[in-house]
Amino acid sequence: MYNPLTKQYAGCALCPFGAWANKVHYRGHEHPDLLFIGEASGKVEDAVGQPFLGRAGRLLDSALETTGFKTAGLTWGITNALLCRPSEQAGGANRTPTRLEVENCNPRLAAMVSLVAPRVGFVVLGRVAERALLLVRNRQPINKPVWYNHHPAYVLRNPSALESWHNEFRRVVYHASGRKPDPVKDMAAMSKESPVHAQRVEIHPA
Length: 206
Known about the structure:
Low-confidence stretches: 180-200
């Protein structure tokens, strides 16, 4: 995908780590049905220059395959609330972005949302991404559904959440594709209600 933001933000140093971190913009379909928004890059993503390629990314890719996104014909793209990997020094450990860092990078995220222009809606992964999209909404209209789920890193730390995490993605597929659940197979898989905030979906009429 041609990305004019690559040149525009190549020299961004609003955050200290911008001086040494790679700029990681986007991967996926040029104009997808769904735009997934995560938190920030990790070590692997920083090295390669694409989001969600490490353990969390592999878990997410597996979940999208398992829960029927491809079968339903849905396309997707993935970006993060932050353009860079937040760390205290070059090669340092990952850490959670601060509120100021999320705010610093929000104009870039808003520009990415406009550039990608998902046809159906957004899937927000984790609370940092949720806060970032709320800031984008303060800048420009978001007239598409927004679904919420845990970040895959949370599931890596809490394996017992895997089933409910998958179920939330199945709900996204049902709504985003307009497909009704199979009365036996699908509803059996979704029989346990998820306790997480991922159940919430905001529908914004166009």
